Amino acid sequence: MPRKNIRELAGKPLIAWTIQAALAAKGVERVVVSTEDEEIAEVARNWGAETPFLRPAELASDTAPGIAPVLDAINHLPGHDSLILLQPTSPLRSAAQIEGLLSFAAEREASSVVSVCEVEEHPSWMFHKDSDGMLAPYAGLEEATRRQDLASLYSLNGAMYWVRTDWLRKTRSLVGEGTLGFCMDAESSADIDTMLDWRVAELLMTEREAGSKVSGAGR
User: β-strands 112-118, 180-183: how paired?
Assistant: First the structure.
C-alpha cells in the first residue's frame, strides 16, 4: 500500500493518529518522525511532530536492516537515554497505553519493553499438510484440547517498542534477552499491512471517534 502513512484514515492522515497519541501521552518529551520523504515530513510537522533530520534514502530500501532507521535516529538525537518507537501502522494505540508502557518500564527498571497481544489462533490448533492433503499436528506443541486449557501465548503486535539507548547501541536490537512484554487488547493491537487491515482499522477508528463524541456531549 504505497504512501499509506499519509493516506487518510477516518478523516486524518494515518500518521496523525500516532502523532496525536504521542503528544497527549505524559512522559513523552519529544515526538520525532524519522522519514526520508519530504511530503511525509511536512504532514508530520503539520500535526505537531518534529522532523529535525531526514534519514538516508538507502534506509528505506527492502534490503536495509529493520533496526537501521532506529539507530540512525538516536545518532541524530543525542542526550536521550531512552526512546519509544511508535509505528504509524498501529493507529488504535492510545495515549493512555503509551503512558502505561512507560510506567511499566520504569517500575521494573527495564532495558527493553515491547507491546504484545494474546494470540487468537493458538499453534496447538495448527497443522502441517503434506502433498496428499494429510494433516499432522504442528510439532512440539501441546496436543489440541479445550481452548481454555491451553497456555496463553503472546505475539508482538508492533504498536510500541521502548528501549534504553545504551542497551540498543549494545544489542542493536529492540528485542533481546531481558525484554519485557506489555499486554494490549486485540482492538488496540490492530496493525495495518493489507487493504483488509485498513478497512477494519477504519471501521474501528470511526466507531471509536463516534463513541468519544457521544460521551463528550453527555458531560
Answer: parallel
- Asked if the model's pLDDT at residue 144 lies above 60, the reply is no
* Locus of grid cell 503486535: 157
Give buried/exposed letters for 171-204 (b at 16+ CB in 10 A, else e): bebbeeeebeebbbeeebbbbbeeeeebeebbeb
| Residue 151: C-alpha distances to residues 142, 144, 147 (Å) | 9, 11, 9
pLDDT confidence band for 219 (50 / 70 / 90): low
Cell numbers for 214: 457521544
Where are the extended beta strands (E) located within 146-190?
154-164, 180-183
How many angstroms separate the CA atoms of 201 and 159, rounded? 13
Contact 88, 8 (CB under 8 A): no
Identify the three-state secondary structure at position 163. Answer: strand
Q: Going by DSSP bridges, is the β-strand pair 8-9/12-13 parallel, antiparallel, or unpaired?
A: antiparallel
Element (H, E) at 13: strand 12-13
185 vs 170: CA distance, rounded Å: 31
The predicted structure's pLDDT at residue 142 = 56
| Sign of the four-CA dihedral 153, 156, 157, 159 | positive
